[in-house]
Structure of Ferritin:
Amino acid sequence: MLSKKLEKALNEQIRIEAESSQVYLSMASWAEVKGLEGVAGFMYGHSDEERMHMLKLVKYVNERGGHAHISDLKAPKTDFGTFKEMFQELYDHEIFVSQSINDLVHVTLEEKDYATHNFLQWYVAEQLEEEALARTVLDKINLIGNDKGGLYLFDRDIQQLTVESAASDTAGE
């Protein structure tokens, strides 16, 4: 059984994961309109992944005797300036989500809920991967600079990254 404090914290994380999905969906739409097909595919995939993170939390809360709440979400912005600024925002958002997960883990320790602590270790590891991926993408963007040919190749390469990521995700199922 979840404590009320932990249930409230988990419901807050559900909202954060849902808003993350919306932010990445907005980024995908923006990129698609700009003709960045690969970036759009990458962001659509990220949006789907965040929704799955949310659903995993919803099911966990309900299975542990709590009640997962689906709340209002802040509308994400629709313009991201440049693709570099968009990916910087992605990176900053992943750091925010990591901190939120860390705060949630802290609550599990305060509440001595070791089952939830164990459950959240998947999220801790996932956030390490998300931050590393965002940092790698930003490094590649910085290498490109203002080279339009580099942007074309980056867009094509990130599309391949999306395909490879999807293949490795389904291979483990």
Notes: The chain has one domain: 4-69+78-160. The domain at 4-69+78-160 is CATH 1.20.1260.10 (Ferritin).
